[in-house]
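Appendix B. Extra example for self-study. Work through it before the problem class; the solution is given directly after the inputs so you can check yourself.
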Amino acid sequence: MSVACRWTRRLCGRHLTLNRGMHSSAVLSNKEDETPKKVWVTHHREGEKMSWNVPSEPVDVRQKIPDNEWRGLLHRIAPKKPIRADFMSYMQRGIDLRPSSIKRWWGNMQTEAAAKDQMYKPERVAVLGFELAAAHFVVHRGGRVRFRGVKEWVEQNEDEEYELSRHYQPGVYIEEVDASKINLVYEGLESMKNLMYLKNLSVSGCAHIDDWCIDRICCQFSGTLEHLDISGCTKVTERGIGALARLRQLRTLNITGLDGVKDIRLLCLLLKDDLPQLKISGINYFNPETLEHS
Amino acid sequence: MIRTLGSFSVVQRAWAGVWRASRCLATGCSSAWPRSCDVLVVGGGAVGSSSAYHLKHRAGRDLSVVVLEQDSTYEKASTVLSLGNIRQQFSVAENTLLSLYGASFLRRAPELLAVEGQDPVDLRFFPRGYLFLATPEGLKQMEENYKQQTSLGAEVAWLWPDQLRKVYPWFTFKDNVVAGVLGTNNEGWFDPWSLLLGMRRKAESLGALYLPAKLTGLQYRQEEPRQTTAVPTRSLTTAQVRLKSGEEREISFSTLVVAAGGWSGEVGRLAGLGTGEGVLATPIPVEPRKRFIYCAHAPDGPWEGCPVFNDYTGMYFRPDTTRPQYFFCGRSPLEEEEPDPTDLSVDYSFFDTHLWPQMVERCPEFGNLKVKSAWAGYYDYNTLDQNLILGFHPVYTNMCIATGLSGHGIQQSPAVGRAVMECVVDGRSHSINLDRFSFDRILTRQPLKEKMVM
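Solution. Structure tokens for the complete assembly:
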């Protein structure tokens, strides 16, 4: 049988049928080959939680094409056999070159990159401990941090250098975090967990802060946070504001720019009922127009 | 050639038909009835739409997906009649993982379910948390559950009685409550309609076809067993469906996904599950069970900051945040008191006898409560252990069952849809190992029950 026919049969035959069990070892076993199957090591992909019930078989049991077999152009990109159905499907998908699609694709790339960049990294915490890891995380991306017992803020200078210990130091606690210049996303808040004495958090101007992030803030800092600044976070709705009552120590709240939230004034009054020591800034209780007419 | 008037018009009509059909195929729309498809999903509720979405998201045009949903208004569907609560506090570890993925899916839903040119999906998530209570007898089980949930990544807080009194001053209890577990992150409630319509709209935009038809019959083909000792398997081939107009049609398919909620047992019976011999004598043990939800006005009730309150008696209530001082309450009845599921009428006396006394016991301010309205919905109740059944049937090797979620379906529907997609494309669910939820436990009668959590 000619080589081209054999290649086409392999591609279109068993390996690309989307019956169930496609990726199971039983289908992939090739009786013609005598070479022993190489089992690739499961590499720990970044951010992947090794859950207790991760399947025990390795991720990739494919082997490289032997040298004496025919290779085409496609095999330079995908040198292992068989070629996965996901890969073929991706290659056959048309490229959408409309400007709106490119713009949307670029936006998605940016948010994905931000999420991956700001993801919680256990290695960072293992070396530095929770407090210093959060400090490095914030300062490296353009934010500011102030430690307990210290008056000066730690931030980057023009050459993007900053002074922070590179090893774990006990007794160092963060008291204030200013994350307003970082484009903080939900994963970034996860990177700032387990801060024991955080009193002041500012995420003003971070456009991606929404109700889920407020939920996360309330969960992580419920016992200690006293000052919160969410001005300019337009994705926050009345549900997020209502959930802020969980921050029992909250003293000041800045919600400038959130006038569009439904019933914001009523929510503020309800919050003040719940937390008597709370002072809310950035909200105008009286509409100047009604005052003029009265 | 002399062209008579008749033949000219025949030629013209034939050409017009060919042109119309080719235009139809070119645009991808099927005003022509689909004779065959790759995956036929029975049921267009949360699980069915989630499966269609995940299949289309992974395979695009390479898999043709048809969803049979007999009622596009979803009048009796469990999805839209549910309260839309989400929690991670389960005792079966897979349930916690399914809900965690559900929470992350809901958080990213505005990007994932975005359709060009249409409004983004607004799921209206309310972060409040679930509060579960432990009696002295159940304290040890609660502790085990708590340790397991925190090890899997759920953020829950353990509260001792004095802490409970401090956080919830309206909550009155004596020695019968010794601890409480409160979810601090990713727990609360959302709008199930928005999720369902968001997933359906996205699946349809990716090419899934929703047919307003009811499944009336299934045909199979006997397969040759590979070895002499192997069980002979069958492969489902075609489905008979009936449209609203009464017309009967046929669709042939490659894989069937049973996601019909409370009516999955009936779908199984169409294939002979429950009426055959041997393995086929066991039906899909899912039936519709009616549950009531009462909407009550309590002017002095603890509306502010109230979580989804779960009592150890099975009673639960949560505030209705659209209207001040309104609460939703409900309770699972005992086996003997199961209401008749033929219609969705509400029994108000159930509230007076089973719910109100407990609510007043927990919070005396509920004394002057008034029930303003109520509705009933169906649980897709798994009579064996009230947990998910997921996987292929041992005899009908291309029938993937995804049902039986018995009341916690809406929060797990994104994850179950992804698991169905992985079963169909990869052979098994590998992101979350759901082997314990396979149909085999139904055959061996080994229930996998939730311990002490509803």
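Self-check: The two ends of chain A are 95 Å apart (CA to CA). If your reasoning did not lead you there, revisit section 3.
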